[in-house]
Automatic annotation (TrEMBL):
CDD domains: ABC_TM1139_LivF_branched (cd03224). Residues 2-235 form the ABC transporter domain. One of its GO terms (biological process) is L-amino acid transport. Belongs to the ABC transporter superfamily. Keywords: Amino-acid transport, ATP-binding, Nucleotide-binding, Transport. Gene3D superfamilies: P-loop containing nucleotide triphosphate hydrolases. SUPFAM superfamilies: P-loop containing nucleoside triphosphate hydrolases. This is Branched-chain amino acid transport system ATP-binding protein. It comes from the Bacteria. One of its GO terms (molecular function) is ATP hydrolysis activity.
């Protein structure tokens, strides 16, 4: 579904991502793990079209999207939920969701149908439809940005640190939703600092360290890797 080959990302002289390769199969949930500064967000931003690749390639369902801009990436079938979790605070929950459906704006019937489906998955958002998004709690805003990305009807979803700064009980609920999305057949790439939570839902994982893939395997293999903490602690 998603094939990253020898990807590099630079900020001027800083090489944040150095020849990273990985893949995500259809219906798979793959997690990208690693300590602060390992290069996870830079990788995600590059896939999403928000950063230019300095080298390598990105293919979605066999189609090259390496130089695609963010709108072209979404149109190709890949939506991203950035870690910044930014909602439009003065717009209502419903208006925020409709902005996610921008590329399908001529298909109002399809959008209504998709919105109904998402309201079943996120009942809290249905209850808060007419409330300004800025008044939602952190967990509700996270649900809103995930639902807004799903309004684009992607086949691949990129989630950047969905648990960041949320209380443990809310994190549990966010991960339950991620599992539900996976069961619906969605292909997911999940960037996380919360290793245990990520491995509890992931089929496979890649661990990044200093801009490169340090280790990879099934969730069980990664869990059993004795040097996982070393990757996190920089050992
Ligand atoms: N806009 C930028 N300008 C310069 N350097 C940057 C910029 N963004 C990131 N970097 C650097 O690139 C490297 C990788 O950062 P990145 O945010 O991709 O890591 P990360 O694994 O996502 O970390 P975190 O979990 O803290 O978000 C870091 O050394 C960081 O300082």
């Amino acid at each position: 579904m998603l094939e990253i080959n020898d990807l590099s990302v630079s900020y001027g002289a800083i090489r944040a991502v150095r020849g990273v390769s990985f893949s995500v199969g259809k219906g798979e949930l793959v997690s990208l793990l690693g300590a602060n500064g390992a290069g996870k967000s830079s990788t995600i931003k590059c896939i999403a079209g928000a950063l230019k690749a300095a080298g390598g390639s990105i293919a979605l369902e066999g189609k090259d999207i390496t130089t695609a801009n963010p709108e072209q990436v979404i149109r190709a079938g890949l939506a991203t939920v950035p870690e910044t979790r930014d909602v439009f605070p003065d717009l209502t929950v419903a208006e925020n969701l409709m902005l996610g459906a921008y590329i399908h704006r001529r298909d109002q019937a399809g959008n209504r149908q998709n919105l109904e489906k998402l309201h079943t998955l996120f009942p809290r958002l249905a209850e808060r439809s007419n409330q300004p998004a800025g008044t939602l709690s952190g967990g509700e805003q996270q649900m809103l940005v995930i639902a807004r990305a799903l309004m684009a009807r992607p086949r691949v979803l990129l989630l950047d640190e969905p648990s960041l700064g949320l209380a443990p009980a809310i994190v549990e609920r966010i991960f339950e939703m991620i599992e539900t999305l996976k069961k619906s057949g969605l292909t997911i790439l999940l960037v996380e600092q919360n290793v245990n939570q990520a491995l509890s839902v992931a089929d496979r994982a890649y661990v990044m360290r200093l801009g490169a893939i340090a280790t990879s395997g099934t969730a069980e293999e990664i869990r059993a890797t004795s040097d996982l903490s070393a990757h996190y602690l920089g050992g």
